[in-house]
Design a protein that fits this description.
heterodimer; A: 103 residues; mainly beta; three-stranded antiparallel β-sheet; globular; B: 339 residues; 4 helices
């Protein structure tokens, strides 16, 4: 079991009607991120203190619905450090966009 | 007598927001009926402020109204399941601004409105997302009426109309580009707009023997002539819109980059029917609109900036006016301004 401070930043491009970001498991609604906070930089964020995972990687899933050309961009910060590679979900995607981050 | 103009109009909203400017288009007809509920399309749900909180000043050149709308989402905003509340109030001169400017005559008409929209309503998937809800409007209108077949002193009268409008709407985004809007409801209406306008001038002549002057005092009044009726009506509105896609200005492809700065053409096809004890009224229309992409605050959201509106009123000649289709077609222009 590993624990760390986690911050998820989400921003959208284009007309996005609904969007979701899951941690670890996209089929488990308890892993859906809720309670987003605003930022002056134009993104929404959610922080988790001492977030615990059982394996060595953090999986982040993202999906969105909206007008063609729209997308959802998710940035992951572990212990305050921005991780390489963002999760980008397009409205045309049939499945959740997904990325693993080694911890 | 004024010629009745059956041009559909787009409401022209001005978006004013304390922290962020957003534009939104609200499609209304000349009676102020909302054609489409596209609030989630023009909202930017992930722009740094969770949810939607915006105030609109809305000008509809069709019913000549000026209104204020406040649109907000639920407090604990969840971008995958949220609700939109919209509160509105608008006022207009029921005789139009011509009577206000030429006669100083103002017969007020006020509409208070509330609408609730749930996003999504039934389904959200990669190629189908819906939203919908209900709306309630309450109208109080004061009208000036004229009857020539009564005693002179009673020929002008005023009438206060109170009417409630209830509506249910269902909307969906299909394959990320097509928007379906469907609306049914109940509406208490009247035939005031169908009556003939008259402009009357009363002359009062004063004769002054001492100065040998004749003074003429003119009082102008505008009213509608005919039999005023109130009735129950059941509106039905169906609309399809082809939305315009967004292009990422930071894309390495120069074509995509260039497209992000270009205007794009979309269109809306609609059918509106008003069933009542009167003859059913139907209108069909096609709106071409140009959208502009906001590459700054709203990050890629395209909003309409100009619309060309072609409408055929009563295309099936239910009202038996024997007019040709070309006679029934009217064209209107619309434009949107951001403050």
């Amino acid at each position: 079991m590993k624990s760390f401070d986690l911050e998820i930043r989400a921003s959208t491009f284009g007309s996005i009607i609904t969007w979701k970001v899951y941690l670890e498991d996209s089929t488990d609604d308890s892993k859906l991120i809720l309670g987003w906070f605003p930022s002056d930089e134009g993104y929404l964020f959610r922080k988790f203190t001492k977030y615990a995972i059982e394996d060595d990687t953090l999986e982040v899933f993202a999906g969105c619905q909206g007008i063609k050309g729209g997308k959802l961009i998710v940035e992951v910060l572990i212990n305050g450090i921005s991780q390489q590679g963002k999760v980008t979900a397009k409205v045309e995607d049939k499945k959740y966009a997904f990325k693993s981050y080694p911890v | 007598m004024k010629i009745k103009c059956k041009v559909f109009y787009l409401a022209i909203p001005f978006a004013i927001m304390s922290s962020q400017l957003k534009a939104q288009i609200l499609l209304e007809d000349k009676n102020g009926d909302q054609i489409a509920n596209n609030a989630p399309i023009y909202a930017n749900t992930g722009s740094g402020v969770p949810g939607i909180n915006l105030s609109l000043i809305k000008l509809n050149t069709g019913d000549q109204s000026l209104g204020f709308n406040y649109i907000t989402t639920t407090k604990n905003f969840n971008p995958s399941n949220y609700r939109i509340n919209e509160f509105g109030i608008k006022a207009r001169p029921t005789e139009g601004y011509a009577a206000v400017f030429s006669n100083g005559q103002f017969s007020p008409g006020i509409r208070a409105s509330y609408s609730y929209t749930k996003v999504p309503l039934l389904k959200t998937s990669s190629n189908y997302t819906d939203w919908g809800g209900f709306s309630v409007n309450y109208d109080i209108d004061r009208y000036a009426l004229f009857r020539r077949d009564t005693v002179f002193a009673n020929q002008f009268s005023t009438k206060t109309f109170r009417g409630i409008n209830l509506g249910l709407n269902y909307n969906a985004l299909i394959n990320s580009i097509w928007i379906l809007n469907f609306k049914v409801g109940y509406s208490r209406r009247n035939n005031y707009d169908d009556l003939n306008s008259i402009d009357a001038e009363d002359y009062n002549i004063i004769n002054d023997p001492a100065s040998r002057l004749v003074r003429q005092i003119i009082r102008k009044r505008t009213a509608k002539e005919g039999i005023f009726k109130e009735f129950d009506a059941y509106p039905f509105i169906l609309a399809f819109t082809k939305a315009t896609s967004s292009d990422d200005p930071s894309d390495p492809d120069p074509v995509v980059k260039a497209n992000s700065k270009k205007l794009k053409i979309g269109y809306t096809v609609y059918f509106k029917n008003l069933a009542s004890e009167q003859l059913p009224k139907s209108d069909m229309g096609l709106i071409f609109f140009l959208t502009q992409q906001d590459n700054k605050q709203n990050k890629g959201v395209r909003t309409p900036v100009f619309g060309l509106n072609i409408q055929a009123s009563d295309p099936f000649d239910v009202e038996k006016q024997k007019n040709s289709l070309l006679d029934k077609i009217t064209v209107g222009f619309t434009s949107i301004f951001s403050l």
